[in-house]
Every structure is written in C-alpha cells, then in structure tokens.
Amino acid sequence: MSIWLVALLALFAALAHGKPGYGPGEQDWGYVDVRPGAHMFYWLYYTTANVSSYTERPLAIWLQGGPGASSTGYGNFEELGPVDLYGDWRSWTWVKDMNVLFIDNPVGSGFSYVDNTAYYTATNKEIALDLVELMKGFYTLHPEFEEVPLHIFCESYGGKMALKVNELLEKTPLKVGVFSGGLDLICATPGTVNWIAKLDWSRRDEYLAAPRNAITVDRILEGYQKTGGNFTMFWINRSGHMAPADNPAAMSHVLREFTSFG
C-alpha cells in the first residue's frame, strides 16, 4: 500500500507544473478573482524548448487588442499558440522558445466574465488594475515564475500605452519595443514612426541617429529594426495589423531578439 502511495505522489509531483491539453507540451488554465464578482481567465503554455526546466526560459504575456478581443482565442489560435484553428500544430509557435501566458483582459472578453454588468471596466486604468490583480493571483498559483524574466507583448489597442512610453524609457531600466506591420492600414507604419520621433525622452537623438538594420530569416528580408538606448522599433514586412499571423517568421525573430534569451 505504501509503495503505491509513494508511486502516486511521485507521479503527481512530476505533473505538478502542468497538465496535458490538445497539442504539444503541457498547459495550465484557470480563473483569478480580480475583484468581487469579476473573474479573469488565463491560459498558460509551458515551453517545449529543449531545456532541463521550463524556468530556464522567460514568460511572455500576450494581450489582445480591441479592447475586448480574446487573447486565448484569437492570439492563441490565429497567431502564435501551438495549435491553429484547424487543430494543426503551428511550426512558428512562440511556445517553442518560451512560456506563453494568454490573458482574456478586460473582464468580459473570451472566457473572463462578471457576475453583474455593473462590474465591467470602463477605463484603461480599471483594466490595468484588474490585470495587476490577475498577475498577483497567477504568481500565487505559480510561484516558480517569480524568478523568471517577464516580457509583455500586446497588439492593436495596446498602442494606447504609447502615451506612457516616454515614462517607461526615462524612469525604468525596462526594454521597450514597438513592432509595426508594413501593410497595416489601421495603425499605419508612418504614423508609428512619427509619434516615436516625437517622444520626449533623453536618448531620443541617439535613437533617431541609429542605423536601421535588416531582419533576415533564412536569407529572406523580413523587415528592419532600429535601436537607441533601451528602445527598439521593428518594421515587419509582408504583414498587416496582425503581424504574428501574417509573418510568423519575422515575429519569431523579434521575440528572440528582443527577449535575448539563451
């Protein structure tokens, strides 16, 4: 009896960091109560990289735009998750390189929900506060990620944070990056270039004077990148508003280049 108990405990310990889902690798998912009556859903994919422990690779958070589009739906199955909408394994998935956390933010998007419509968020500040509570709950459930480097990626409506980019550059050591699809008609690249050029930060001239270097993947020109200080802009060729879906090869390069892992 004791032998069976030890065997079961060993099995549970081996599986403690994840559970099997559809597709390669292990996953975890669940809810965090970000406020009374407000429940936010997350879906975590553990990296399938050839490493001894998943904690050797960073954690990338993906936040969808909209606001109100589902990260666990669109971002996951249309852009960078391990499985596409047809149930096929995606060759350029970000999960091959690092752990990926999709969050249905704000509440009401995807699988996130509220008990009463009065609990929906109405401002960017409220959305951000809910996200902070989600991460507090996530780290409580997955404390091993507290020491893992964290990178936050967002698309489309995430550009609303542009107004605070200069504060991040001046007041923190954080690396900040912006990617823009060259065929994007919603957030056109010339407009992105212009607002970056007008950012009020001490190393702006260094950035503006920096060269724009080519991004090549398998000897194909996939875009360009320009770095000054702790800021980088990426121009992504052959892509529109949803760059990871349109040019996954280029965006996989951006992921590896920007996070500087392994």
Automatic annotation (TrEMBL):
Superkingdom of origin organism: Eukaryota
Family under the similarity heading: Belongs to the peptidase S10 family.
Entry's Gene Ontology BP terms: proteolysis
Leader peptide range in chain numbering: 1-18
Claim: Cytoplasm is one of the keywords in the record: no
InterPro entries documented for this protein: AB_hydrolase_fold, Peptidase_S10
Organism name: Drosophila sechellia (Fruit fly)
Record keywords, A-Z: Carboxypeptidase, Glycoprotein, Hydrolase, Protease, Signal
Protein name per its UniProtKB record: GM14260
GO MF entries: serine-type carboxypeptidase activity
